[in-house]
Amino acid sequence: MPKKRSGGGLSTTQQAAKFLGVSVLAGAVMAGIALPAAGALGLAAKGSVQGFDEIPANLKSPQLSQRTTILDSQGNQIAQVYSRDRTVVDLKDISPYMQKAIVAIEDSRYYQHGAIDLKGVLRALNKNAQSGGVAQGASTLTQQLVKNYFIEEAGDDPTKVAEATQQTLGRKVKELKYAIQLEEKLGKKKILENYLNITFFGEQAYGIEAAAQRYFSKHAKDLSLQQSALLAGIVQSPSRYDPVNDEAEATKRRNVVLERMAQLGDISQAEADKAKETPLGLHVTQPKNGCITAVKGAGFFCKYVENVFLTDPTFGKTREARAKLWNQGGLTIRTTLDPQAQNSVQSSIKDHVYKADSVAAAATLVEPGTGKILAMGQSKPYGYNKNETEYNFSVDRDYGGSNYGFPTGSTFKPFVAAAAIEGGKSATQEYSSPYKMNYPSPVQQCDGKQWVNTDNEQVQNENESEVGPYQMKKAMAKSINTYFVQLISDIGLCPVVKMTDSLHVHQGDGSKLPQTPSIALGAIGLSPLTMASAYASFADRGMYCTPVAIESITQRVGNEQKSIPVPKSTCSRAMSEKTADTINTLLRGVIDSGTGQQAGLDDRESAGKTGTTDSRKNAWFVGYTPNLAGAVWVGSAKQNIEMTNITIGGVYHSEVFGADTPGPIWKDAMTGALEGKQSESFNLVDIPDENDHNKGNGNGNGNSNGGDNTGGLIGGLIGGTNDGGTTDGGTNPTPTFSLPDGFIQGNTNGGRNGNGGNRG
Questions:
Q1: Do the Cβ atoms of 633 and 393 come closer than 8 Å?
Q2: Strand residues in 558-711 grouped as ranges (E)
Q3: Is the backbone of residue 297 left (phi > 0), alpha (psi -120 to 50) or beta?
Q4: Which of 236, 234, 232 is nearest to 245 (CA)?
Q5: How far is CA 121 from CA 18, 25, 166, 450, in A?
Q6: What pTM was computed for the model?
Q7: Please, what sign has the CA dihedral across residues 227, 230, 232, 235?
Q8: Which residues lie below 8 Å from residue 579, measured CB to CB, with a gap of 6+?
Q9: CB of 207 closer than 8 Å to CB of 330
Q10: Reported confidence tier of residue 748, pLDDT bands at 50, 70, 90
Q11: What is the pLDDT of residues 225-271, one digit of tens each?
């Protein structure tokens, strides 16, 4: 976008061309416009000038590009974005001094002539002939407005901008014809209003309202005489007369405008002289464009909103159409961002992870039942300097996130459990769950094929003491890896994939999850927004709602505001209420007595799951209450830092767990976000605790219903497993030590007796 309009600072070649052009143009005006019967102009080489009558009859006034304002859910401004900083205002909202000043210096006979000032053309020709160059131009305000229309239509395309500003007779003739149309169609006042709204005033300010804000931090209607004269003077050459960078030159130019206003009788000579003595009195407001200027750490959310706009077909069939609408601006976008929740997220992250730390944290909060994104923040601010980033760690790649998301660790296990329960498995399902084992093989896939562990891949639990058998409740609370790979082997991969599809769980690059048993342990990269939205389905008793960030959009078109359709959240049933209630009960147990105790909320029911990946490169906590869900990730964006012997937020960790770093972030963020909100309860189900039902009868039997069991010395004293042991006693793993049957372990003759004594 050129920084000065035609007429300021032209080269010798350009001056000569303009002199010739204006001379020929005078003839064109008289022959082709004043006397239309002359027909085609024929003033240059064949084909270089379009016939006057061949020029399209109607000039379509472009919708001026303006700044877009992004608001939170309460109407507070988050940021302003624009390709051109402009706010269109009515003529009544522009200072009368400003109206007189621009006419005085740019087109003093504006109210006396039509679209073309023939007297001015002749005067300019005479003056230019005397000077041997181009001392004066002859464009009226109406002609300048037409030229600015061409420039506005060109946008930021340098080729089109060059065409719109080229010094050719053909362009000038087109400009003249359209100027005549505008005079007939709009009238003087509207043309002046449009001109003051479209013209460039330097310092990234387009239009008088933006200029008044930029230089004086006030509205255009409040501009004083001397302020108006300064801004009017800038228009001829915004770079030369820039008051911010050259106060002396700008002052001279302002005084020229004041003197001209006095000569024309717009003000008295005394007023002009007094105004000349005043300082410029600048009160500059620095340009604040883009999401980098967003308040409350909402830069990443702001950028997410922009990416949604550019991606969603609701706003246009093609990306080019959506980009054009976005750059055109003039939008007021009301978002779902809740200021209380956003403040809480940012405060919590800041307390627990420093921006200079070697790892980062990201958190997203989503409202169950609506899909509204209420908060989104991270430890490294939005920017391009040290310890800043432009990547939004909370979202997928297509919305400004990392390429693949981040492995989620054990926070994926609830999806496996939900698939199993939805398929008919009981929450008391038990597996041997040894400390270490090979991945079970083969495992059924959706396409009828089988996954086979050809490389003898192994899986193990966090601690050697974690040896089964376990039922689902304790396995979830203690996050037993071997339990969940046995579970996924039992039910097959297809039910898990169907469940994650219904929860819209996909990789950070948008692709579907691979069908391998390792997904049970969170080996695949996902985004915090994906995780928070999926867990929100548990909170909403099985209903999944697509995440949304935009509540409404209006656009100013002329003097009117029109509403633009926005994408809505679509909700669908992902699982039965019973399944969701069962998962809620299991995950509440994680917080009550499992790995997530450090994250539990003090004043209301909560549920959630910890997650830590191999080599501790990622740590997660994803949790929820009935009315709010949130996901917190901590790790290295490049996945190159193992979080052992590391200091995060000023706290030393020999090893980072999902419970001790993401967990407290989640707890503090949720506590603040929910302060003053109603405390709601889950619909819990009864999942028998292993210890409640597995006690022996004290008579030496391996269990309370052992049938033909041989009594166990310790088995009878301590108690057996439920109904005498595992689901099928005969399939239990052989103990790593050998003792007589019944000494510690009840024998297997009781059918389901298995490990009765040992697990009592």
A1: yes
A2: 560-564, 571-573, 607-612, 618-625, 628-635, 644-648, 651-655
A3: left
A4: 234
A5: 12, 9, 19, 85
A6: 0.77
A7: negative
A8: 418, 421, 422, 542
A9: no
A10: very low
A11: 999 999 999 999 999 999 999 999 999 999 999 999 999 999 999 99
